[in-house]
Design brief:
Strand content: 5-15%
Number of strands: 10
Number of domains: 2
Structural class: alpha/beta
Shape: globular
CATH superfamily of the largest domain: Aldolase class I
Order of helices and strands: HHHHEEEHEHEHEHHHHHHHEHEHEHEH
């Protein structure tokens, strides 16, 4: 996908001019309408998995509501005719302080899944953090992204050999950083998923990084046969069919006879996460990659300080979109203390609750180097594929550009805490 120079001013003008000709945006510009329409377009399983959170979903709510504790104070009579929204991160110039967070199992909302998002990201030069739980192998996404920046999200499994293999593949795919997600040593109590007793991985969805990996294929061969046979029900048969269809290569019956799809799911569920992981294990990752390493899921200043002491290259303040701990501190509340403790030694990114350009502005004012979005681009993908995801990203970049100018700011570095009450 060829990258084009994006102009926020032209994007806003284009919306109005196309509207004059009777052509409406592919996706709603208003966040509330975007979310409502996307959720209405998803099936029940996808809606629960994408939109749901842990417990009473109070963390999901506070990720949004806590942004309202901070207000922008615009300044007047400043020359803002020329604005620069670009930043530099790990030696790369980015057009905006915006990245796409990893979101798994995107096949639930669009057939092109991660590949469609990769196309949208590369069109705008926005970094895409490839999901460990992707529906398409990282190589397939990299193939459509050209030289556009991408990172790789790592879930640290029980197999260090698999961890090393994932990282090596990410390097070969042109990824320029590794983000280790720390907050999913166990699945949270996700009430929407539990209420319908549905986990997409059991259907073989969202495990494309695994089934495309030679180490994982070896681990499948080492997997012992399951004891006994489960009770045969219509739902079980339906699940097996989906599992076989999700497994790559071959025709349905050859895959079914091979037993590989079932082995893949059993192997994945047995090694998915590693709850015994500690700070000392990070040296293993450093020994297997020269790429910058970021820790995703940091919410406490002491953990941020530990990351700096351990030589980690960056932090992503995140509570997994409210999907892990109900009643957790929101990311925007956690951010200032973490930024203070880090004190500019390494980049601090914020993930969670960003829904508009004003949110981006507030996060940067409170110490973030950049922000990440998840659900917004997934909703765009749901409604209009790659084009829809691209429009959501463009809308955020445009609103951020306009917010900067209207607040009297011309450069990202000048967005400081003085710009907020």
């Amino acid at each position: 996908m060829e990258q084009t120079e994006f102009s926020a001013v032209d994007h806003q003008k284009e919306i109005y001019l196309r509207g004059f000709a009777g052509i409406m945006p592919s996706v709603p510009v208003d966040w509330r309408q975007l979310e409502a329409r996307a959720m209405a377009a998803m099936n029940h399983d996808a809606c629960a998995y994408i939109a749901g959170g842990a417990g009473l979903e109070s963390t999901v709510a506070s990720n949004r509501s806590d942004f309202e504790k901070h207000k922008i104070v615009p300044r007047m009579l400043r020359d803002t005719s020329e604005r620069d929204t670009s930043i530099h991160l790990f030696g790369q110039r980015l057009p905006s302080p915006l990245l796409l967070s990893p979101v798994g199992v995107l096949e639930m909302v669009h057939e092109e899944a991660d590949v469609a998002v990769g196309k949208a990201a590369s069109q705008l030069g926005v970094p895409y953090i490839l999901s460990n739980q992707a529906s398409r192998p990282m190589e397939a996404v990299a193939a459509v992204m050209g030289n556009s920046p991408r990172w790789f999200q790592l879930y640290w499994s029980k197999s260090n050999d698999l961890v090393a293999s994932f990282v090596q593949r990410a390097e070969r795919c042109g990824c320029s950083a590794i983000t280790v997600t720390l907050d999913t040593s166990h699945l949270g109590w996700r009430t929407r998923d539990l209420s319908i007793a549905y986990l997409p991985f059991l259907e073989g969805k969202g495990i494309a990084q695994y089934t495309s990996d030679p180490v994982f294929q070896r681990l499948m061969d080492e997997q012992p046969a399951p004891p006994g046979r489960p009770q045969v029900t219509f739902e079980l048969l339906s699940g097996v069919i989906k599992m076989v269809n999700a497994y790559p290569g071959g025709n349905f019956f050859s895959k079914l006879r091979s037993g590989r799809p079932m082995k893949a799911v059993r192997t994945f569920t047995s090694i998915y996460s590693n709850p015994s992981l500690t700070w000392k294990d990070l040296s293993f990752l450093r020994s297997h990659t020269k790429l910058p390493i970021l820790l995703k899921g940091i919410l406490h200043p002491d953990d941020a300080a530990m990351a700096v002491d351990q030589g980690i290259n960056g932090i992503i303040v995140s509570n997994h979109g409210g999907r892990q701990v109900d009643g957790s501190i929101s990311t925007i509340v956690a951010l200032p203390a973490i930024a203070n403790r880090v004190n500019g030694k390494i980049p601090v990114l914020l993930d969670g609750g960003i829904r508009g350009g004003a949110d981006m502005f507030k996060a940067i004012a409170l110490g973030a180097s950049a922000v990440c979005i998840g659900r917004p681009y997934v909703y765009g993908l749901t409604l209009a594929g790659s084009k829809g995801a691209c429009e959501v990203i463009q809308n955020l970049m445009t609103e951020f550009y306009l917010t900067m100018g209207l607040a009297g700011i011309t450069k990202v570095k000048d967005i400081t805490r003085d710009t907020l009450t």
